[in-house]
Amino acid sequence: MVEQNAMCEKILRKLEHILSINTEIQEFAIVPTPEIEKNKSPVLYEHNCLGIESWCKQYLLQYTHSNLLEARKDLIRNSLTFEEKKNLNRVLIGALLIQPNVTTFWNMKRELVKSDILNTQLELDFSRIALTYHSKCNEIFSYRKWLIDLINLKQKNYALYKNELSLCETATEKSKNNYHAWNHRIWCLQNISAQYLEDMLISELNFSLSWISKHISEFSGFFYRQVLINSLHNLKSLFQIQMFNLEGILKYLKFSTLYDDPLYVFFHLLGKSNVFPIIEDCPKFVNLLAVLLHDLTYISTELNFLYCDHECLWNYRKFLVIHIMNVLYEYHGVVFHYHLVIPSENRTSLNEINMLNLDIKEVRNEIPRKVSSSNLYKIVIQNELEFIESNKNMVNILQNNLALRYFKWLKCSNFYKY
Amino acid sequence: MVQLYCISILHKGGVSATWLKSAFDLQKFGYFQRGSVQEFMTFFCKTIVERTSPASRQSVKEGEYMCHVYVRSDNLAGVVISDQEYPSRVSHTLLSKILDDFTQKYPSNWTCLTEKDVSFPQLNQYLNKYQNPKEADAMTKIQEDLDETKIILHHTIEAVLQRGEKLDDLVAKSEGLSIQSKAFYKTARKTNSCCSF
What we know:
The structure holds 2 protein chains of 2 kinds.
Chain A: H1 2-21, E1 27-31, E2 43-46, E3 49-53, H2 57-77, H3 82-98, H4 103-114, H5 120-133, H6 138-154, H7 158-174, H8 179-191, H9 194-214, H10 219-231, H11 246-252, H12 262-270, H13 283-306, H14 311-331, H15 350-353, H16 369-372, H17 375-392, H18 397-412
Parallel strand pairs in A: 1-3
Antiparallel strand pairs in A: 2-3
Helix pairs in contact in A: 1-2, 1-3, 2-3, 3-4, 3-5, 5-6, 7-8, 9-10, 13-14, 17-18
Chain B: E1 4-12, E2 17-24, H1 31-50, E3 56-62, E4 65-71, E5 76-83, H2 88-105, H3 122-129, H4 133-142, E6 152-154, H5 167-173, H6 179-191
Parallel strand pairs in B: 3-6
Antiparallel strand pairs in B: 1-2, 1-5, 3-4, 4-5
């Protein structure tokens, strides 16, 4: 036991030493290795990458846990000397690198940060390294949030959030469906000051586009894009619409217009509104439509042909259509209720359609005249029907089914009058 | 994730297959894993080529990975390892294309070739270019006559192995795998999370 403790202490010292001299460590890993054969240190350190061999994990865990739980009481009573606190951090480093999901230990780190033993910037660095191996660990993300809030008390810092975004990107690349990483990203979006919000939304829209094209069957990416689109509602200024290749979109939708100015084009699409007579006054409609139509043509159509039978794409398409309709209704001052109506002869398939837990009502609402006569409504519905048709002709059975199901949804959602 | 990990060209001899050239892109894996992952991918390419009959195509799904193999009737073979989301159609077209290119440079006598003699830098270029399947799509449209129904799809590696063979035994017996890679394989099997090769 004594021998093992000495060994653990040695490993911890080495880890702490490496972390203190090199601030550019790229990643940490526990490397599967068979039992000890040679008398050599289990700490691996090459090319800015840090690792430990898996056999020493159990000894380290045992040693660090028993040490830390003991020291915890003293830490709370504040009866530790400066030197002891420093030593405590060394044990914490080892414990948290191996098993970062222990909130108690992160809380001890918080104590040490509060008593100025640890530097917030260095702690951000450390938690970044811990995250490279355990990329799905919520405790690390919440520790980072705490640190950032702490730094922000002194001074709001935009670069800090930028940094978090790239960290989230690596974490989501490393493990699939990384709920905590996406949540962290959304948290950044919500916490950034309003003056940067627009810049960030634009860069995030671009980011999510390229992320989605690389992770086509992961809904997390689509969900994040939906969050971004929903945040466009609050934007006060008008986007630079050139970004979205309006011409290409209109060509795809087979809509010809005499106007060049995007504002007029949107006006032509939406029709004349009694509620918002001047479209310039409400940038939100233009912003939203630009993104929604872009996604409808690019993500949902182009990617759909490249990657067959991905239900994600079809689900996202539903989201887009619902939102386009929402914009139209709101623009014309009509209250929009999204609900599905199941025709009585199809009651058996009710469960299938109600997967989204939507409110199913008996009443069949008419589409307001103003909405159904607008150009936008006509071309979107026409485009959807053509899209379904082109997918029905495919050899792929699954894709065929998805197209049929989508058609059914379009009818039930009351957007399409048959 | 849409990603290509490895492209290899092999020659299927009477008893075993020999490597002619391979290219890897293992950036996604951790630094300390890369060596083992590469060893496993090479091991797996060889194993699967040996178990594919000439003039046929197979696709094997294993965990989150896809392995596509094409052995031509003249015993030249190509293997692509990608993740599951990478479109299979593109992988198989890529295989035909690289094998054609390779034959242009080395028309015959593959039995005498070893990996050292072969200089075929195009393989790495293909690997980079095809990371984005959209880029490649222009080419795939021309080759849509690829008969997808003839590609045999297996849902595990075990399904490809001959009767009585077990992957665990093959791994244990293999000489191409280091002790560390074998340990890595065992852990991966147990946790079934980081790499299922």
